[in-house]
Amino acid sequence: MPEIKFTDLKIDGQKTIEIGPDLHGVRFDVFATMEEGRIVDIELQVLNTGNLPKRIRYYVSMADMQMLEKGVVYDELVESYVVMICLFDLYGESRHMYTFTNRCKENPELEMGDGTTRIVLNATGTKDDISPKLKAFLSYVAGNAVEDEYVKKLDEAVQRARKNKKWRREYMVINMRDLEQQAMGAKRRDREKIAEMLQDGKTPEEIASFCKYPMKLIKEVQNSMMSVK
């Protein structure tokens, strides 16, 4: 990607990290290692599922855990970057790029120095806050026609990949994953709405009658609310 300069990358493609048989693993869209050992995870996020910041945190922790499992001690942990390319503005400030590092709350100029950087790119940004090349790249990701030499080469590579049978299978898997995320997000929003109505004193029967939610789902939300009281 232009502007975000990573050199000497060894690309692993969609890399799966399994920490253990009883632990939840993670699959990275693009996992790369620099010559000096620094690692980069690049993800494309189409939908705002409501849990993206926590998922970024999980990606960072899984990458660190993989290194520790290989016998690396804490002071040998390399710098890591998670780059999340979003087709929406996660933080609502119209920026194209949000860069996060761990800093001291009392002195924002003081960095913790843990070597982790998270970058959230917003393909719908409107501010003049990045280079024209990166802006063209994000516009292309958003599905717009762009006149840019870098984007032209990228589009040619994409067209070649689309003719590859293996890539098409991977693309179908990714589409299924996006549909699953969309369904999960819709179900979460439904549960939140039901919980709000129950808190406002509505009965399950009233909610089912007016909002057409399944009674089974309403009861599930009601039971979960009662269990945490």
Low-confidence runs of at least 5 consecutive residues? 16-26
Q: What is the radius of gyration?
A: 21 Å
How many strand units?
A: 8
SS element count, helices: 6
| Structural shape | globular
Strand count, sense and barrel status of the largest sheet are:
6 strands, mixed
The portion of residues assigned to helices is 40-55%
Q: Percent of residues in beta strands? A: 15-25%
List the helices and strands and how they pair.
Elements: E1 10-11, E2 15-17, E3 26-28, E4 30-33, E5 39-45, H1 52-69, E6 80-86, E7 97-101, E8 116-122, H2 132-141, H3 149-162, H4 165-199, H5 204-211, H6 215-227
Parallel strand pairs: 5-6, 6-8
Antiparallel strand pairs: 1-4, 2-3, 4-5, 7-8
Helix pairs in contact: 4-6, 5-6
Plain-language structure description:
By secondary structure, the protein is of the alpha/beta class. It has two domains: 10-163, no CATH class; 177-227, no CATH class. It has helices at residues 52-69, 132-141, 149-162, 165-199, 204-211, 215-227; strands at residues 10-11, 15-17, 26-28, 30-33, 39-45, 80-86, 97-101, 116-122. The protein has a six-stranded mixed beta sheet, with helices on one face. Strands 2-3 form a two-stranded antiparallel ribbon. The longest helix is centred in the C-terminal third of the chain and has 35 residues, at 165-199. 16% of the residues are buried.
Concise synopsis of the structure shown:
By secondary structure, this protein is α/β, with parallel strands linked by helices. It has helices at 52-69, 132-141, 149-162, 165-199, 204-211, 215-227, and strands at residues 10-11, 15-17, 26-28, 30-33, 39-45, 80-86, 97-101, 116-122. The longest helix is centred in the last third of the chain and has 35 residues, at 165-199.
